[in-house]
């Protein structure tokens, strides 16, 4: 259904009044003099997250080591207990999710578990637009198994530098491919890959497939009961608002519960045997068997608070607003910014678009710097992309309107020319 947007500020304000999620904004620490559009890189802190951190810190202060046994072992089971709160977001079965380490360490764990090369099948298939950490992990495992990257890595290249076509991925699924690792949403262009189609095609060929949900979880609902991936990993500090460096997530399909974890640690033991401290490893019978060290309680805590909000709001409603507000942003960009050299670099179709908009401009880096000094927090990605993520839970349509107004002013007046093009660190 084509939506009828208007360019006026009054229209934006009317949209905010009608927004069914508008009350959730008050539960986040939003700076009223700032337009925060970087929730796809680091989501804002919520009041619930802050309260959860304080609760865990208070239990540590009060109980010391006794906190492990509080409330029938609540903290002992924290990685699974809080992980269960994510089930509805991805359509997982009970005990298929754990919270552990970081997205990169979970990638290493999954690859070490599922990449079992042999003479016939020894290649790993990736895409050429994925975030570098995924590729680093894949190359590491290839080399650890005694292969060279040149002989064992298959990279599906983009035809236009923005998207990866499903047909190209399928065509690359040769008999030598043992494992596939792909992103659900491409971090630069916001392309949402058809996970169900690709997973089905991989399994037809006997190929293990895993997905990186870093840029979809918390913004897009998934149905893993239907998609049936072998594993998935994600971070929790983007759309899930778990806080900087918050714990990573790992999904193991229950059909693999009998498989031996590639990287073992004492928390992967059966609960009843863990504190016997024997050197014999008896793996837990669910995703908990892929745990390694002691739970990162202070890293899991803010996520627990944040997920309370998600459970209340509902991922379907979050996706509905995300689609509308990003479509509104694209509408305004087309109407007011294209004449200044901006281009929309993400798919337009709802079923192919993630939770952010990719604005391309030859001066994207310097424009991003200028945006900061105008009270807007964007996200820049090489070589020419300003990523803008109006988060459904706390961003408003009026903020989107103001954002485009500021972009127009910066470009029309060429104030970005006052900034250096020399690259800094995080932007």
UniProtKB/TrEMBL annotation:
Reaction equation(s) it catalyzes: L-kynurenine + H2O = anthranilate + L-alanine + H(+); 3-hydroxy-L-kynurenine + H2O = 3-hydroxyanthranilate + L-alanine + H(+)
Keyword Repeat: no
Family: Belongs to the kynureninase family.
Organism for this UniProt entry: Isachenkonia alkalipeptolytica
InterPro entries, A to Z: Kynureninase, PyrdxlP-dep_Trfase, PyrdxlP-dep_Trfase_major, PyrdxlP-dep_Trfase_small
Protein name: Kynureninase
Subunit and partners: Homodimer.
PANTHER family: KYNURENINASE
Keywords, in A-Z order: Hydrolase, Pyridine nucleotide biosynthesis, Pyridoxal phosphate
Modification type N6-(pyridoxal phosphate)lysine: residues: 238
A biological process term (GO) from this entry: L-kynurenine catabolic process
